[in-house]
Task: inverse folding
């Protein structure tokens, strides 16, 4: 490409021109800034530095990496995979193609869990479990916000658990990590709160075309997208203490069905919570207390 040659051969090409080129390709300025800062090995939020150094030349090696990053992003690869990091609930998570890119809307699930799990000292007796933890985003946010609680995270993917374990170690947050499918690794244990952001996309959903860079098995769940949610709702009562809660993230159009499934399984106080866009994104219910 002409621009690649220009950046590598012409020392007059500067940071401002590199950003203009990226925008000309259709990349939002915010993303172009993050990628340019990343290849320059500077913090990706350091917008002020770019402004004050916009006349600086782009080093040849950084220019080549920036060109590659632009191509990958324009092919739909998530920004988190390109930079290797994603902020979630105030945490800096390491993320790559072994796990889903954590969505901001999933913070709704964490908010709800924190409402149900009281702060210390009562939290010392709370046992929380995150099923299908991926990068560990939900479990680590809970461990950081409720340090006295006992947090378990499960995933059937060895690769995903490696990412979660690395994040837990780097953030110095205690997390019990177990490998297996849903509840299988915990035997007869019971929990005060079960959370999950399970696969919930239909097999024929056209939106999957935009998600080809993310793990397919963490996205798709049967013909209607509800196969895993049905399984979790059916099994959860056996793993909840009386009065414990099950909270699930789901698709934008699945709240009514998920509430019906929860009610049919005997859950009480069934309700949904809205995400940042005002869409019912999470639904949950409480296992009845022993009367």
Result:
């Amino acid at each position: 490409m002409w621009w690649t040659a220009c950046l590598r051969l012409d020392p007059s090409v500067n940071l401002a021109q590199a950003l203009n080129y990226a925008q000309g390709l259709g990349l939002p300025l915010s993303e172009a800034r993050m990628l340019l800062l990343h290849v320059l090995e500077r913090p990706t939020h350091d917008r002020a530095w770019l402004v004050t150094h916009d006349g600086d030349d782009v080093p040849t090696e950084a220019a080549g990496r920036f060109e590659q990053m632009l191509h990958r992003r324009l092919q739909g690869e998530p920004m988190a995979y390109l930079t290797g990091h994603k902020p979630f609930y105030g945490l800096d998570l390491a993320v790559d193609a072994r796990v889903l890119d954590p969505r901001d809307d999933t913070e709704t699930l964490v908010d709800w869990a924190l409402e149900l799990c009281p702060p210390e000292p009562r939290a010392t007796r709370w046992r929380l479990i995150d099923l299908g933890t991926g990068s560990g985003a939900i479990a680590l946010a809970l461990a950081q916000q409720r340090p006295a609680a006992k947090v378990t995270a499960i995933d059937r993917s060895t690769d995903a658990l490696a990412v979660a374990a690395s994040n837990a170690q780097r953030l110095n947050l205690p997390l019990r990590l177990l490998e297996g499918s849903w509840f299988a690794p915990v035997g007869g244990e019971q929990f005060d709160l079960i959370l999950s952001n399970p696969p919930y996309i239909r097999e024929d959903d056209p939106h999957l075309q935009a998600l080809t860079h993310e793990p397919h098995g963490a996205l798709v769940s049967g013909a209607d997208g509800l196969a895993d949610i049905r399984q979790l709702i059916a099994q959860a009562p056996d793993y909840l203490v009386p009065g414990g809660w099950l909270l699930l993230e789901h698709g934008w159009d699945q709240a009514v069905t998920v509430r019906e499934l929860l009610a049919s399984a005997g859950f009480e106080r069934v309700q949904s919570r809205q995400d940042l866009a005002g869409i019912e994104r999470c639904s949950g219910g409480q296992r009845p207390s022993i009367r």
